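Figure 6 in text form: structure in, sequence out.
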C-alpha cells in the first residue's frame, strides 16, 4: 500500500518548471486535442485558422502547435522552459519558437490574430497576462484558452481522481475545471465565451500511467512515493481494463474572448507581425 502520509503540494513555481526534466515523456504520452475544438475556435473567433497568424503561448512540446499548423495557421510558439523548448524543436524544427511567457510576451504590438494557451493559462498571472494579450492581439483578434479535463461522470475516472487527490492532498482535476471566466480574467476586461467538448482516446495502460506521471504533481512528488502510487494504480486499472487498453475520456474546456474590432482613429497602424523589439 502507498503510504497514507500526505506531503504539502509543491509550490506553484516549482510545479510550473517541473516539466522541463520530463519533456520527452510529456511529448510521447500527453493527449492531443479533437478536431471539434478547432472548429469551435473558428466559430467563436469568426475567422478560419487557415491563413491566421497565431502565437501559441506555453507551447510546451508543441502538441497544440502541431494541430494549429495542420489547420493552415501560421504559428509562432512561445515557451519559457529550456527542456520543453528543446523537445519542441526536435518535433517541429521548422516552427519558430521564442523563449518567454504569458506575463511578458516577446511579440510586437497588434501582431497576431489569435493567441492560444493550451493547458497553460493557469501558470500565468492574469493581472499581467491579460494586458499582454490585449497588447499583441490585432483589433478583432481572439484569445483562446483551453484544458483537457477529466470526465468525472465516468465512474473509473472519478475513482482514479479520488485516489490521486488522497495521495497528493490536492484536487488535481478541479484545478483545470475550475478555471472559469472570472478566474481567467479577474479584472473583467474580457468577455469569454465558454464551450465544453467531449472526446476520448484508447491507449495502452503504460501510456496512460506515463501520462499521469508527466503531470506536475507527480514530477514534484517524492520519486519512491510516486512509483508506489503508480504501481497501485496499475492494479486498479487492470481490474477495469483487463486487456490493458485504457479509454481516457476528456472534456475540453474552452474559453475564448474577442478584442474590440477597431482602433481609435488617431491610433497608429499595427506593425508588421514579428518579434517585439
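Output sequence:
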Amino acid at each position: 500500500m502507498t503510504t497514507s502520509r500526505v506531503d504539502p503540494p509543491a509550490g506553484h513555481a516549482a510545479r510550473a518548471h517541473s516539466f522541463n526534466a520530463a519533456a520527452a515523456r510529456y511529448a510521447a504520452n500527453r493527449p492531443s486535442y479533437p478536431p471539434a475544438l478547432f472548429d469551435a475556435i473558428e466559430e467563436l473567433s469568426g475567422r478560419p485558422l487557415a491563413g491566421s497568424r497565431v502565437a501559441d503561448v506555453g507551447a510546451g512540446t508543441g502538441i497544440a502547435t502541431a494541430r494549429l499548423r495542420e489547420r493552415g495557421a501560421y504559428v509562432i510558439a512561445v515557451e519559457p522552459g529550456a527542456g520543453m523548448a528543446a523537445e519542441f524543436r526536435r518535433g517541429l524544427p521548422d516552427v519558430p519558437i521564442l523563449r518567454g511567457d504569458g506575463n511578458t510576451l516577446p511579440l510586437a504590438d497588434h501582431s497576431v490574430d489569435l493567441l492560444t494557451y493550451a493547458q497553460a493559462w493557469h501558470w500565468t498571472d492574469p493581472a499581467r497576462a491579460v494586458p499582454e494579450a490585449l497588447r499583441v492581439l490585432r483589433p478583432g483578434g481572439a484569445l483562446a484558452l483551453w484544458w483537457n479535463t477529466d470526465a468525472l461522470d465516468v465512474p473509473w475516472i472519478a475513482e482514479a481522481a479520488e485516489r490521486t487527490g488522497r495521495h497528493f492532498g490536492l484536487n488535481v482535476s478541479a484545478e483545470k475545471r475550475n478555471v472559469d471566466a472570472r478566474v481567467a480574467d479577474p479584472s473583467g476586461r474580457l468577455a469569454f465565451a465558454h464551450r465544453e467538448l467531449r472526446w476520448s482516446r484508447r491507449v495502452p495502460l503504460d501510456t496512460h500511467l506515463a501520462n499521469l506521471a508527466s503531470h506536475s504533481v507527480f514530477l514534484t512528488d517524492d520519486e519512491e512515493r510516486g512509483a508506489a502510487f503508480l504501481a497501485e494504480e496499475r492494479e486498479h486499472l487492470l481490474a477495469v481494463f483487463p486487456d490493458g487498453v485504457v479509454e481516457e475520456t476528456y472534456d475540453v474546456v474552452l474559453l475564448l474572448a474577442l478584442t474590440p474590432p477597431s482602433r481609435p482613429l488617431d491610433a497608429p497602424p499595427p506593425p508588421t507581425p514579428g518579434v517585439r523589439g
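Caption detail: The two ends are 55 Å apart (CA to CA).
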